[in-house]
Amino acid sequence: MKLVAEGQPLELTTSLKTPLIEDGEALVKVDYAGVCHTDLHFIEGSYNLGNGRKLATGLQLPVTLGHEIAGKVDDISPSAKVRKGDRVVVYPWIGCGSCRKCLNGMENLCEGRPKFLGVFMDGGYSDYIVVPNARYLVSAEGIDPKQTAPLACSGLTAYSSVVKCDLKPEDLLLIIGAGGLGTMATQIAKKVTRARVAVIDVDEVKLELALELGADSVFNSTKLEERELAKELRAIGSVGRGVDGVIDFVGTPSTSSIGFRVLGKDSRLVLVGLAGGLAEFPLPLFALRGVQVIGNFTGTLNDLVELVELAKKGLITPVVSGVYPLEDANLALDKLRHGEVKGRVMLEP
Length: 349
Ligand SMILES: [Zn+2]
Ligand SMILES: [Zn+2]
Prior knowledge:
The chain has helices at 37-44, 100-103, 145-148, 154-165, 180-193, 204-212, 226-236, 253-261, 284-289, 301-312, 329-337; strands at 2-3, 26-34, 46-50, 53-56, 63-64, 68-76, 87-90, 128-131, 137-139, 172-176, 196-201, 217-220, 243-248, 263-271, 292-295, 320-325, 344-348. It is built from eleven helices and 17 strands. The mean pLDDT is 95. It folds into two domains: 2-153 and 299-348, Medium-chain alcohol dehydrogenases, catalytic domain (Quinone Oxidoreductase, Chain A, domain 1, Alpha-Beta Complex), CATH 3.90.180; 155-295, 3-Layer(aba) Sandwich (Rossmann fold), CATH 3.40.50. Strands 2, 6, 7, 8, 9, 16 and 17 form a seven-stranded mixed β-sheet that branches. Strands 12-11-10-13-14-15 form a six-stranded parallel β-sheet, with helices on both faces. The chain has a two-stranded antiparallel ribbon with strand order 1-5. By secondary structure, it is of the alpha/beta class. Helix 4 (154-165) packs across helix 5 (180-193). The structure holds zinc ion (2 copies). One zinc ion is lined by residues 95-96, 99, 101-102, 110-112.
């Protein structure tokens, strides 16, 4: 399912040839590909920078979308760590391989020309995918294949965002947005860092799901003014501190505003969501409270390896609420566009 023109539905394209691989590459037969909110931005063609300004996504069309890819190795060099027939999850955030960030294992922040799969190179909304190097395959044997795909983006981003909050057990983490990423972050924060978790969303169904996954308290932001919400959050925060970390998976002026407002001293607001706009923060508070506002984009290959280990131990389980045939990609994207998806939906070739 290819993105052929900005703003248009994806198009089914067919080829009768199964791709052949060259030295070092790997061919993966796709079991499932997760449908990510960022795909909607790729289709739209830009991010909203606020004040009418936009940033182009920079995709070269046509391209096959899909960066949450789980599948079975179909062809690979015999010297690779994973074998033909192994179930794997594909690390899609592949960099140029030669810039400073790539050389330090941070390919997701490549300063050169990144080769992100499903973004700048053909991705997983397809029967097969050619992965440029076998080292980007992470063995996922023992995990339900349906729950493997979301680890590559929503799981990875949630994991690295929680790590960036540097929480101690019993600290209070505020998660804004209880979609695919928020539900993963809730599980990771509860089970891995043993923090307490509060979740904000606008949808009761998603808040209930957050509670089922272990959130300690949930708040519907359509029912509370920002001031009241901040008061309630401070009341459940560590005594005299407020909230110890905030992850904003939405990324609008209003969500970042509440996130900044409740930050306790020496804590971090991690901005992840790409909804867009311009934010205003009172400058003296950065110094007076010693707080940090930082961004986070996906995660490293090493982060994915760590996350897959946690999934193998059963500590985290991505919430998959639906599976659509690959040809129905546009239907799945529409559901996501209208906020009707609980956790993640998958495409199945
Ligand atoms: Zn994604
Ligand atoms: Zn690079």
